[in-house]
Amino acid sequence: MAESPVQLLRLHARHAPFNARGLAAHATALADAAGIRPTNASARAAPSARAVRFYVASGLLDRPEGTGTSATYNYRHLLQLLAIKIRQREGQTLEAIKKEMREVTGDALERRVATSLAPALVTNGAGIQPREDDGPATWRRVAVADGIELHVRDDSPAAREEALLAMREAVRAALGRPELR
Fold first, then answer.
1. Considering only 25-39, 45-59, 67-81, which range has the smallest mean pLDDT?
2. Facing residues of 65 across strands?
3. Does residue 144 share a domain with residue 75?
4. Same domain, 111 and 152
């Protein structure tokens, strides 16, 4: 029996708690896999740790547990961040999103996010698409930096060119080395 998008989204709760950078990276991976791109030119497709802190200060995200570098974010924060990116894709302003976020319950938020991300969530619990045949898989190699590369199976939703580029840039940003960008 196939799992529902909500059940598949809940599998991501096991990755919590997050720090701000981890929350941003996890949301970016899901948004990229789903092809979420904001229509508003001033909004970035991939949230950053700085954006997470801005959203908290602006009241778009709930306050994390702890403060400063010890602040931790949970599954609800992930849902909220994904909802922000989804609504930006739909052309909503941050002010309109903030108003909506105050009115939506946790279950409704989870259902809304799961429905929007459904194509990217259609994977098994390990995050790997089940294969229909036992034939050899073909893989794409994406160079990130000297000695670092990503391997993505061609039949994965993440094998789209824009997703590959986003993943490469996310890994480079995570490395924090400007010469790699």
1. 25-39
2. 72
3. no
4. no
User: What CATH number corresponds to the domain at position 12?
Assistant: 1.10.1660
**Under 8 Å between Cβ of 174 and 25:** yes
Residue 47 domain boundaries = 5-121
pTM of the model: 0.65
Do 32 and 89 belong to one domain? Answer: yes
Average pLDDT over residues 62-86: 91
pLDDT of residue 124: 37
The total of structural domains in the chain comes to 2
Q: Round the average pLDDT of the chain to a whole number and report it.
A: 80
pLDDT higher than threshold 50 for residue 173: yes
Q: 59 and 12, same structural domain? A: yes
